[in-house]
Amino acid sequence: MTKKNYFQISTAIDYPTNFPHAGHLYEKICTDVIARWKRLQGFKVHFSTGLDEFGSKVAKCAKAKGMEPQKFVDYMSQFFLKLCKLYNISYDDFIRTTEKRHEKIVNEIFMKNYDNGDIYKGEYEGLYCVDCETFYLEKDLDNGYCPIHKKPAEVVREESYFFKMSKYQERLIKYIKENPSFIRPEKKRNEMLNRLKEPLRDLSVSRTSVDWGIRLPIDKKHTNYIWQTALINYLTTVDYPNKKFKDFWPCLHIVGSDIIWHHSIIWGSFLMSAGIELPEIFVHGFVNIKGQKMSKSSGVVVDPLKLTDKYPADAIRYFLIREITFGHDGDFSEEALKERLNNELANDLGNLVSRSLTMVEKYFDGKIPKGKNELKFDIEKIKKLMENYELTNALSEIWKFVQEINRYINKEKPWENEKRRETVLYSVLDSIKIVSILLSSFIPETCEKISKQLGFEIKSLKDCKTNLLKEGKIKRGEILFKKVE
Ligand SMILES: [Zn+2]
After folding, report:
1. What is residue 130's predicted lDDT score, i.e. its pLDDT?
2. Predicted local confidence at residue 147, as pLDDT
3. Distance from the CA of 145 to the center of ligand 1, in angstroms?
4. Measured between alpha carbons, how far is residue 99 from residues 106, 214, 230, 233, 276 in Å?
5. Sequence spans of domains, the chain
6. What is the whole-number distance in angstroms between the Cα of residue 283 and the centre of ligand 1?
7. What is the pLDDT of residues 329-353, one digit of tens each?
8. Architecture label for domain 6-307
9. pTM assigned to the model
10. Which of 36, 130, 134 is nearest to 92 (CA)?
11. How many helices, marked H, and strands, marked E, lie in the chain?
12. DSSP class of residue 303?
């Protein structure tokens, strides 16, 4: 996709009925890594994240707390903003669906669908899970219970406006087949194609029973279906239909596998109806704990707002990307986090930087020695992995460089070998520089510290070439990672 020099990327917007969990964090970190990488490549990036604040479930939660819905979401939003801040999520826009700018665009898209003849009035009766904000077919429920929330689905009947999704079935199938990058990984794409073998049903896109929502422009008794309201955030965030939208769209959506259907099939048909180009979707896996899906009901939860009390944000970022292969489910455990923090971040990287700089102080009076870098790096391989969003593999390739530098310094022993000292230390420092540019999308705070100590700026992937490190004084700082027992 990546048309021109612009790149739009989004996380899904979170439902603020509960505090943020590790799944929210994981999605934001993965998206942040890609956004930072693209910026490093020279793209102008628009990265959005935010909150999905309407719907009956939010209204119920607010009521239970004795709050007005707007007050409630205002209150909850601070925790999600704090999450982004704690983990250095470099979003360009934190969008909330209750903002005025959003209402305008929701109405505009709805009217496009309406004017295109795709909206009609009918009556809906169905089995509805309030927690999912989704109607289910009998066969998709577990004995009448929502497969995700394990709660009985309610029979809901009401006047409703419908969107003619059935009209887009063939076009969607054709589009998915012709555009392999529309839904990735491929396994998920095939899942959607399989589901499209069943006839698509028209979609109820309004409610009279839900008060907390955006009123339909054609009938104020109705509020807009929460999913339509939510999905349109990706247009609002780039100021649809103005210049920013024209520059940036289409977006890359990073979403969990439970909402691919909404992002590909439902969103795809709304956009086709409105005459807007379709986005790309990359599906990531779930963060499990000991193989169990994290959820409040199972009691298995990690609080990402507290985790940074014990571990540096960069260690958690590093761990999640390294441990959970992007596109697959993976496991979170503090044991594994500690191990990676101690062995890889503290030993491989932290020690390397610290002992190299100590030697520069000791032998060269704190000045970067002259020399020619003897080490070689295959940056192209990493670029290619990142191009395919193989974040985990890219990170593990970069880590091989880190280990390579360690092997080199251990073999060359610049503390003993005086003749080779200048060349070896220059090679090591110049290599640390390259590695820290490559790692800066993954562990930005740490790489910023390294760059300050070595006296260079992290700006562009183009600087990932050997022998660019200039002479100058180093500024040895604190150690990068303390070990955690
Ligand atoms: Zn449910």
Report:
1. 83
2. 86
3. 8
4. 11, 11, 12, 10, 23
5. 6-307, 333-463
6. 20
7. 999 999 999 999 999 999 999 999 9
8. 3-Layer(aba) Sandwich (3.40)
9. 0.94
10. 36
11. 19, 16
12. -
Tokens 């092997």 locate to 407
For 299, left (φ over 0), alpha (ψ -120 to 50), or beta? left
| Beta partners for residue 95, in sequence order | 50
In angstroms, what is the span from residue 136 Cα to ligand 1's centroid?
9
What are the structure tokens assigned to 284, written together? 């990531």
Distance from C-alpha of 25 to C-alpha of 83, rounded to nearest angstrom: 7
Find the 381 Cα to ligand 1 centroid distance in Å. 42
Residue 297 pLDDT level (bands cut at 50, 70, 90): low
pLDDT digits (tens, 9 = 90+) for 155-211: 988 899 999 999 999 999 999 999 999 999 999 999 999 999 999 999 999 988 889
* H or E segment and range at residue 189: helix 186-195
Give residue 413's identity as a one-letter amino acid code: K
Domain 333-463 has CATH 1.10.730.10: yes
17 close to 57: Cβ distance less than 8 angstroms: yes
Please give the positions annotated as active site: 21, 24, 129, 132, 146, 149, 293, 296
Alpha carbon distances (Å) from 319 to 141, 213, 353, 395, 441? 36, 38, 20, 10, 14
